[in-house]
Amino acid sequence: MASSFLDKLKKRGFEEEEAAREEEAEENPASVKMPEGEMQLDADLLQTGSEVILITQIAGVSLKDISISIEGENDVVVLQGEKKRPHVESEDDEDGSAVKYIHQEGHWGSFYRRILLPGEIIPGEADAELEEGVLILRLPLAAPSAVSGQVIKIHRRIEKDTKKKRK
User: What top-level class would CATH report for the domain 38-85+108-167?
Assistant: First the structure.
């Protein structure tokens, strides 16, 4: 009988880890916060019969500022990078020192997300695609013999109309 994702979490000690984090938070709330300036990405995780699909919004992030890796027993994906604040200059002021925020809702700085997957994957066959600020990772499910510690390259999807114009 195949084990469930919840069984996997229990086996890995995530319940005990979560209980320890909650206890630590009660005693020292500052100790469990992410480092200042660090963001955690929101992610959707889907599973088909042959793959796990991870979807996250990372608008405004350059491909060179994103790193994706597989850890653990080929069942943990790590996303990290940086959302850089754009430099805004005013025509009135050449060095931008006169530009002051009056309202700010954007999240800028480094981000990190570590996600336990419901099964082992084949890192060498993983595919990462970034289009219009949405990152889609396709992670093929595998037998336990796959190699760990691989980095996944991200490619940018070129729309069909753009391809036709280039020909």
Answer: mainly beta
